[in-house]
Amino acid sequence: MLARGIIGTRGGTPFVASPMHKQAFDLRTGQCLDDAAVRVPTYEVRVDDGVVLVGPSQE
């Protein structure tokens, strides 16, 4: 569960690390930094008049 992950940076890349699987994921792309075959979904985020809006990625 990434919601309880640890955040940090690795080589200038912001990441969240899964406490269960011990894998780190790039916060910008969802790509696993430890296994190129693993990726998590990412979503577009923006702030509109103080409201955070989250939607599907445009990739």
Topology readout:
Blueprint: E1 6-10, E2 13-17, E3 24-26, E4 43-48, E5 51-56
Antiparallel strand pairs: 1-2, 2-3, 4-5
Question: How does this structure look, described?
Answer:
This protein is mostly beta strands and about 60 residues long. The chain has a single domain, classed as Rieske Iron-sulfur Protein, CATH 2.102.10.10. The protein has strands at about 5-10, 15, 25, 45-50, 50-55. The strands form 2 sheets. A 3-stranded antiparallel sheet has the order 1-2-3, with no helix packed on it. It has a two-stranded antiparallel sheet with strand order 4-5. Strand 2 and strand 3 form a beta hairpin. About 5% of the residues are buried. The model has no long low-confidence stretch (mean pLDDT about 90).
